[in-house]
Amino acid sequence: MNDVEWKSLMLNSPERGRRALIEQYGNLVYAIVLNKLKHSAGREDIEDCVSDIFVEIFKGADAYDVSGGSLKGYISIIAKRTAINTYKRLTNYHGKHTSIDNEEENGVISDQFSVEEYVEKKTARELLWQKIRSLGEPDKTIIIQQFFYDKSAEEISKLVSMTTAAVHKRSIRAR
Question: Is the overall model pTM greater than 0.70, yes or no?
Fold first, then answer.
C-alpha cells in the first residue's frame, strides 16, 4: 500500500486504514522504539510507547500531506521523537539522568562508568552479531527471533516453516 492509497483508505474507512498502517509499519515502529529504550525500559513501557506513536499518527492523519514526503519517513520521525521523549521521561523518573552540572556531586559517572568495560562490551556485541550474521538461514532467523525478540519456538516454527522440535534442535546447534 502506498501513501495515497493509505490516505484515501483513512478517509473512507478509518478503522481499515489504521489496521493497514499497523500491519505495514508496526515492526518498523517497534524496532525504532526498542532501539531507543532497550536499556532503560521494560517490555510494557516499550509497548505503551509504540501505542502512543500510533495514536499520534492517527490523530495527525488528516493533516498528513502525501506530497510532502514518504509515509515511512513521517512515521519514523514520530517514532524516534516519541521514543526519545519516553526515554527522557523514564530515565528522569527512575533517577538515572545525570546532568554535567551535578556530575561531581553525584559521583555517578566517575564511579560507575568504565571506558574499558564499555569497549569490551561493545566489542563482544559486535563479535556476537558477526557470528550470528555468519549463520546460514534459517539458523540466523531462529537465533535472532529467539533471543532478540523473545519469540517462542512455536512462533518461530511458523515463521520458518519448520516443526517446533526442528527449531529447538537448530537453536541448540547454532548456539
Answer: no
